[in-house]
Amino acid sequence: MGLFDGLLGHGSSVDPSDLAKRLDGVLIEGEQVGLAFKVIRDVFVFTDKRLILIDVQGITGSKVDYMSVPYRAITRFSVETAGTFDLDSELKIWVSGAHEPVTKTLKKGTDVRGIQRALAAGVLR
């Protein structure tokens, strides 16, 4: 995994067997997962080619949205950390061709710096 080794922080690991089931039919031949963060039910998957945002929807979680963003399409990103009164962090990713950023709310304790490093590693290489 090289580029992403050691970036995963506390409290947000993803079970490899769960990830394999979720990504069955999503990854292309030869694409390698480098890092994955779980935020409540949603998952951020950083591969060697793209960022995959898995958004589990509804009460039962049977509806799932897979958003695939090639690193070359990310024009900028922002991570706002939690504060004293605002306990949530926020991630914004601007994608070329879209007016509004992809916005995700991250719960307190999520490794926002790890997510930021993983994004920077994908975008800036």
From TrEMBL:
Gene3D superfamilies: Bacterial Pleckstrin homology domain (2.30.29.50). Residues 2-121 form the Bacterial Pleckstrin homology domain. It comes from the Bacteria. PANTHER family: BHLH DOMAIN-CONTAINING PROTEIN (PTHR35796:SF3), HYPOTHETICAL CYTOSOLIC PROTEIN (PTHR35796). This is Bacterial Pleckstrin homology domain-containing protein. It comes from Peteryoungia aggregata LMG 23059.
